[in-house]
Amino acid sequence: MLLGPDDLTSAASGLPVKVDRLSAGWLPSRIRQIQSPGRWALDLPEFNCAFRAIGDFNPDSVALVAVERACGSTICGIPLEDDLILAIPAGTSVTATVRPGLTYAVAIVPTATWMEIQSVATRTVLEQVSDRPAAVRLAAGEAQRIRSQMRSMADHLATVASDSVLPQQPPGAFVEYLGVVANAFAGPDSRETGTAGSASHHFRQASAAEDFIRTHIREDIPIVRLCKEIGVSRRQLEYAFRTTFAVTPLEFIRALRLNEARRLLTTARANGLSVTTIAMDVGVSHLGRFAANYRLFFGESPKETLQRAGRS
């Protein structure tokens, strides 16, 4: 599938997300999905736009993300690296800052299946799984072998799916891959990355600021107010936003206002709202600048979005 930023809300199996663009300009993202609905799935995306995504992962499944190209992206506050494998436990509230070029393969399986595979691979009985995301870095050769295995498996499953319904239980090649991942997490180099020092600290600062911005998006939010609410200096806040979102706090606030305006414009006709009313509702004080920034971000004017929504 080729998906533009407006289509990315269902780009991950089992994870409906709210997506906000972080920069203007974009190319379609490429996403390959193979699913046995409600049981297991294999996603292979390559994202070509910068965005912030927030969603709640399936409460009964585990996601295992094998990163090929990180490009400075983060998931659940963990700075991604090439050749990293990230385990996201069931029910996790997922946040992601995606930068263009992020490429990975994610296997999604029921928690019980993952626990069973771990116990077989490590010859230990696991009474519980981690309740927070964890990651392990693979050797380059091992990571390349896994990526090749994932692509071959995707090709095979796509052929199977074209002829019949996929089985409810993951096929043998899929289970074999999960065994390799389980061994990686059981090895001496495995690590939990939720305590990644300064990177984690900066992420928490930026996330706290993000929560405040979203709550007060209709208000004027000068940076000095944001610094006071979060308890950091302007320089600290700028650095936290740069390392977490790759934009400044002011650019982030503007991006959120534009994204919220776009969501409102797509339903404005049904609700009897005008472009001006919506702009004011999301805290815009300069309508001309709003229209120019909106066109730069989305490739059309607010009025064009409103008219298109009325025809759909």
Automatic annotation (TrEMBL):
SMART domains reported in the protein's UniProt record: HTH_ARAC
A GO molecular-function annotation: sequence-specific DNA binding
UniProt xrefs under Pfam families: HTH_18
This protein's UniProt keywords: DNA-binding, Transcription, Transcription regulation
Keyword hit for Transcription: yes
Top-level taxon in the UniProt lineage: Bacteria
Every HTH araC/xylS-type domain range: 207-308
Protein name from the UniProt record: HTH araC/xylS-type domain-containing protein
Species whose genome carries this gene: Mesorhizobium hawassense
